Automatic annotation (TrEMBL):
Entry superkingdom: Bacteria
InterPro entries (alphabetical): Auxin_biosynth/cation_transpt (IPR050982), Bdr (IPR023856), FAD/NAD-bd_sf (IPR036188)
Keywords: Oxidoreductase
Protein name: Thioredoxin reductase (NADPH)
Gene source species: Chitinophaga rupis
Keyword Oxidoreductase: yes
GO MF annotation, one: flavin adenine dinucleotide binding
SUPFAM superfamilies from the UniProt entry: FAD/NAD(P)-binding domain
Length: 321
């Protein structure tokens, strides 16, 4: 079995950036992705617009051309696909990593299809796979969705959107514009401060005029097939309802990290242990890259501010070769 210099887990933008850096350095590598190419971006809402400009989403200096000031999900999918194909990156899709095990000076990585051996492992798995649950009765009903894709599905339906940040605001506005009766349930005092600046006035005006109803300082208490109980400052309010779109955020696969042997902080943030100068974890020659570095603080790392993780990792690998 060939021993690779680097095995990269995750075929998102940062995983691709690590592959580009490894190839440029003349290192043998493979990128393993459990889903399609840039799987997390693929699962974003169909009409999503990025907060960043296209040049801040570029990797390895490859130009990202967009017809809009802010690129859209389809443009990003096309860009990263062209990067992977034009640079002939060694990517294996729909191959989920099951285990990472130390094997002397190397690591054995197993998937349902193959067993790999690598001197270094990079984990760039993102955070979009496991939703943060509300842990309320009825959350397991089919009407409850933790992922939002297309507003047309909710046309003429009674929709509750849980949350007050970008994903929730986009879902509320888009489904309302398709004719849904929308109610927002917001834990905080109002719309989040990090909501895209060109969207925030829109949602706040829709709430102010009453087109979209909003319960602030409120949480879902129980969900039933035709209605939902909302705990508000004025007591429990029962609302007739067809669908609940719970935009409560997501978290990294902590069990995968722990199973591999990566230490996590003992508090609720679950920060993984790594050296910010090299991205190396407590496991020798095992690195983290991208959003997974932030633990539960998934708003800290993005494509635009974690692209240099690839350069740090490859520089450290070369120094210790």
């Amino acid at each position: 079995m060939e021993t690779l210099d680097i095995l990269i887990i995750g075929g998102g933008p940062i995983g691709l950036a690590c592959g580009l850096a490894a190839k440029k350095a003349g290192l043998s590598y493979v990128i393993l992705e459990k889903g399609c190419l840039v799987n997390s971006l693929y699962n974003y809402p169909l009409n999503m617009t990025f907060f960043s400009t296209s040049e801040r989403l570029e990797i390895d200096g490859i130009p990202f051309m967009s017809i809009n000031a802010k690129p859209t999900r389809p443009e990003a999918l096309e860009y990263y696909r062209r990067v992977a194909t034009s640079r002939e990156l060694h990517v294996k899709l729909f191959e989920e990593v099951q285990t990472i095990s130390p094997n002397g000076d190397t690591y054995t990585v197993k998937t349902p299809r193959h067993t790999y051996n690598a001197r270094h492992v990079v984990i760039a798995t993102g955070f979009y796979d496991i939703p943060n649950l509300m842990n309320v009765p009825g959350e397991d009903l089919p009407k409850v969705r933790h992922y939002y894709k297309d507003p047309h599905f909710y046309a003429m339906q009674r929709v509750i959107v849980v949350g007050a940040h970008n994903s929730a605001v986009d879902a509320a506005l888009e489904t309302w514009r398709k004719g849904a009766d929308v109610t927002m349930v917001i834990r905080e005092s109002g719309i989040g401060s990090r909501v895209k600046y060109w969207v925030k006035p829109d949602i706040e005006n829709r709430i102010k005029e009453g087109s979209i109803k909003a319960h602030c300082h409120s949480v879902i208490k129980a969900i039933r097939p035709d209605e939902v109980d909302i705990s508000t400052p004025d007591g429990v309010v029962t609302v007739e309802n067809d669908y609940v779109i719970a935009m409560t955020g997501y978290q990294p696969n902590f069990s995968f990290l722990e199973k591999a042997g990566i230490e996590l902080s003992k508090d609720e943030k679950k920060y993984p242990a790594y050296n910010p100068d090299t991205m190396e974890t407590n496991l020798p020659r095992v690195y983290l890259a991208g959003v997974v570095c932030g633990g539960m603080d998934t708003h800290v790392w993005f494509i635009e501010n974690s692209r240099d993780h690839a350069e740090k990792i490859i520089a450290h690998v070369k120094r210790n070769a």
